[in-house]
Specification:
With about 375 residues, the protein is of the alpha/beta class. The protein contains 13 helices and twelve strands. Bound molecules: pyridoxal-5'-phosphate (PLP).
């Protein structure tokens, strides 16, 4: 028998779209991939070189369960340089990607039926992490008219004695939008009184902001967990490196989770992470400029094609476009676009009920491919209109 918790896990629909796209490719179709949230850039050369050097130099063993001290120091330095916040290396837990970090934070915070406030729409996997450790995700809708930012007053309405955490993700997947400073402050204030919930801030898209400036939750409160990783900013998805910055009392309990479940993150990739933080600045700046050019192009083309984009996204590499004029069922629409236009897109329903009617387009693909994808979409829409 498969356990109830495992059986109840929902699939990550965007992966279903991708898998169908791969099937079509095997049968000879040419697909433009705008569904996946993965940088198309090669990992920076300095990062790859550091990983190879580390392997040569014998970094093939377990490390300290919290992560190599030098990497934890580099993370603290990075947070200090970027946000002027003081974090100690003994508050950092290095993990194999940010996904295990998300799991450990919820495992450390939640007992059965404890609640976590998440925006709707949200990154598809959050509720599954919460439910797997027997907590309950409590959705707070965010609206296109607000640029999909939380309304702090709606969070407050959902808070009760069971609320253990308020989850934020800015810039956000799937919307690409940022939380404004005043809303972040208002959310941080909800966590201020002793005994109130912690804020958990997924900062994985930090650094990929093209207008305005992102802020770390640690600028507003220290009753917060920061989740971050190297996958997006440094194009290191397959190398699997992430981290948590946790309030001091949670570190030892989370260290025990790491020791038991994961032992340590990969040693040679931790060395590569140090190089990423210290040497990859120029690579990041180059990738960011290119993402920005693609962002502008994609927004303009999607608007021309009649998709609704009320507040233009300024971060991450996604455009969350309103497609309600085309269909109510974004799942069917995404698969129809895939089959007929040969363009992979992520259906809004993957990101929560309030995402229904939207499509997420990723611009982590070349300008040339994005242009081709938009042309195919134009033909698809023309055919539908006939
Ligand atoms: C918002 C968000 N958080 C976390 C992750 C997980 O990233 P990783 O485990 O590669 O660090 C993703 C991946 O798409 C994401 O979009």
């Amino acid at each position: 028998m498969i356990s109830k918790r495992t059986a109840e896990m929902t699939s990550f629909i965007v992966m279903d779209v991708l898998e169908r796209a791969h099937e079509m490719e095997r049968a000879g179709s040419h697909i433009i991939h705008l569904e996946v949230g993965e940088p198309d850039f090669d990992t920076p050369a300095c990062v790859k070189a550091a990983a190879c050097r580390a392997l040569e130099n014998g970094h093939t063993h377990y490390t300290h369960s919290l992560g190599m001290y030098e990497l934890r120091e580099a993370i603290c330095e990075y947070y200090f340089q970027t946000y002027q916040v003081a974090v100690e290396p003994d508050q950092v837990i290095v993990t194999s990607g940010s996904s295990p970090a998300i799991f450990m934070v919820f495992a450390a915070l939640l007992d059965q039926d404890d609640e976590v406030i998440v925006s709707d729409p949200h990154y598809a996997c959050y509720p599954n992490f919460i439910k797997f450790v027997q907590g309950r995700p409590v959705a707070v809708p965010v609206y296109e008219a607000d640029g999909f930012q939380y309304r702090p007053e709606l969070i407050k309405e959902k808070m009760n004695s069971k609320t253990r955490a308020i989850f934020i993700n800015s810039p956000s997947n799937p919307t690409g939008n940022l939380l404004s400073e005043d809303r972040m402050q208002a959310i941080a204030d909800l966590a201020a009184p002793a005994g109130s919930p912690h804020i958990v801030s997924d900062e994985i898209y930090h650094g990929l902001v093209y207008e305005g400036k992102e802020h770390s939750i640690l600028e507003y409160t220290d009753r917060a967990f920061v989740l971050n990783g190297f996958s997006k900013l440094f194009a290191m998805t397959g190398l699997r490196l992430g981290y948590v910055i946790a309030p001091q009392p949670f570190v030892r309990p989370m260290q025990k989770l790491q020791q038991n479940f994961f032992i340590s993150a990969n040693a040679m990739i931790q060395m590569a992470g140090i190089a990423a933080l210290k040497e990859a600045g120029d690579d990041v700046a180059r990738m960011k400029d290119i993402y920005n050019e693609r962002r502008r192009f994609m927004i303009a083309r999607l608007k021309e094609l009649g998709f609704g984009i009320t507040v233009e996204p300024t971060g991450a590499f996604y455009v969350f476009a309103n497609a309600k004029h085309l269909a109510d069922d974004s799942y069917r629409l995404a698969f129809d676009i895939l089959e007929k236009a040969r363009v992979g897109v992520a259906p809004g329903i993957d990101f929560g009920p309030n995402g229904e009617g939207y499509l997420r387009f990723s611009y982590a693909n070349s300008l040339e491919n994005i242009a081709e994808g938009m042309d195919r979409l134009e033909n698809y829409l023309a055919e539908r209109a006939k």
